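Is this the right way to post structure tokens for a design question? Let me know if I should format differently. Anyway, here goes:
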């Protein structure tokens, strides 16, 4: 694994779903839909969208969860700052009672469509940081360590400090387990 460079696994930036920072959530959904249709269907689908600044440099990322939370801002009130683990260990009955109490997603799909056309990505995107970047010549074992220890779904791949692609957990998992499945059997 120390000889396997992650640039061989990454999705190049030009193949990834992107939107400008002034896009709406509706624009973002359409961009993701378009990227899904254009992407090689033998690979896993995109699960995030990169947000580009006016010079086409990635400045943020929107996950599927980010988009759902943007449609229902009451989640931010409920979760506070700890969005990852706040309610992980509560019962299903308690979580369902929260839906009723807070009236989450209490509207029609038409209401959601209208709301999505007014929400700007810059208002809910995850701003990128250097701790989620990895040089394109980094090895697979380095990438796995950062993905696992950071509980990340992806890492940004850089070349000379420029983001050139995205390394997805699904691609790393697939590469490792495909190699295990095709390795010679033990004697």
């Amino acid at each position: 694994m120390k000889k396997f460079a992650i640039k061989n696994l990454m999705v190049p930036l030009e193949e990834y779903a992107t939107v400008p920072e002034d896009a709406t959530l509706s624009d973002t959904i359409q961009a993701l839909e378009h990227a899904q249709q254009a992407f090689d269907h033998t690979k896993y689908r995109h699960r995030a969208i990169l947000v580009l600044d006016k010079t086409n440099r990635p400045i943020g990322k929107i996950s599927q969860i980010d988009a759902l939370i943007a449609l229902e801002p009451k989640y931010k009130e409920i979760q506070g700052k700890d969005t990852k683990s706040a309610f992980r260990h509560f019962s299903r009955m308690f979580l369902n009672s929260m839906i009723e109490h807070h009236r989450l997603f209490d509207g029609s799909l038409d209401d959601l469509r209208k709301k999505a056309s007014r929400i700007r990505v810059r208002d809910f995107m995850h701003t990128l940081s250097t701790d989620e970047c990895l040089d394109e010549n980094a090895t697979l074992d380095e990438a796995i360590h950062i993905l696992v220890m950071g509980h990340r779904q992806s890492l940004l791949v850089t070349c000379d400090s420029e983001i050139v692609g995205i390394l997805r957990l699904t691609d790393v998992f697939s590469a490792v387990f495909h190699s295990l499945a095709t390795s010679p059997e033990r004697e």
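Format looks fine. Someone answered above. Worth noting: DSSP finds seven helices and eight strands in the chain. The beta strands are 11-12, 18-20, 48-52, 58-63, 126-127, 133-135, 154-159, 162-168.
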